[in-house]
Amino acid sequence: MLNAGPISLHYGKHLALDGVSITVADGETVVVLGANGAGKSSMLKAIAGLVRPAPGALVTLGDVELLGRPTHKFLEAGIALVPEGRGIFGELTVAENLELGAYTRHARPHESRQRALVLDLFPRLGERQKQIARTMSGGEQQMLAIGRALMSCPRLLMLDEPSLGLAPIITTELFAALARIRETGIALLVVEQNVKASLRIAHRGYLMEAGRITGTGTADELRDDPAVQQAFLGAA
Ligand code: ATP
Q1: Which of 9, 40, 47, 50 best tests ligand 1's pocket when mutated (most atoms within 8 Å of CB)?
Q2: Boundaries of each ABC transporter domain copy (predicted)?
């Protein structure tokens, strides 16, 4: 469904992405593992149409080629990004944030159905409809950010470090919600530092190092890979 690559991206003279290619099939959950600065966020931003890669790349969803088109076309095609730091509107209420998530032409007709899905996944958002978003806890804000992205009816939901800064019990809740989103058939592309938890919900994954893909495999293959164990799973 998603075919992206080969993506190269420069920030001035710095080459942040060096020919990265990634695919995600319909309904698949894919995790991207890599150290700080490997280029994971830049890759998600390129796939979401927020930064423009060097010529020669493609970002195709289904049979729609998106590169070169305005950012809102990526969202309308079904690609939603929950950025690191969440990107919700802090001064607006929970209900207003969700409503804004459904502003695209293809999402608006499905607004009430999507809201029901979001409130079923995150009942706390239902109880807090009138609360100003910035006054919520970090975990609640992350759930709101995911809820807002779901309001856009994505075919592919991308999450950048969703568990960053969350308490362990909230992280467990978050991954349970991601597993339920996966069961609805929405494809997920997740960048995570919580490697154990993300491999548990993923079908497949990629390893990224210094702007390149350096490995790929099923979740089981990655979990058993000595390099992954050493770098990310705390093995001696
Ligand atoms: P992290 O987990 O720390 O966010 P990452 O794997 O997501 O890391 P990126 O944020 O994509 O990595 O950054 C890749 C490289 O590009 C890094 O060296 C970073 O310093 C650099 N970089 C990212 N954004 C910019 C920017 N706007 N201007 C200049 N350099 C940038």
Answers
A1: 40
A2: 2-235
Q: What is the pLDDT of residues 132-171, one digit of tens each?
A: 999 999 999 999 999 999 999 999 999 999 999 999 999 9
Provide the CA 220 distance to its chain's centre, in angstroms.
21
- Checking if the pLDDT of 234 tops 80, the result is no
Q: For the structural domain made of 1-78+157-165+188-232, what CATH number should be given? A: 3.40.50.300
What does the domain layout of the chain look like in residue ranges? 1-78+157-165+188-232
Q: Is 34 in the pocket of ligand 1 (CB under 6 A)?
A: yes
Laid out side by side, the sheet with 29-34 consists of 79-82, 156-160, 187-191, 29-34, 204-209, 212-218
Distance 93 CA to ligand 1 centre (A): 31
Distance 37 CA to ligand 1 centre (A): 5
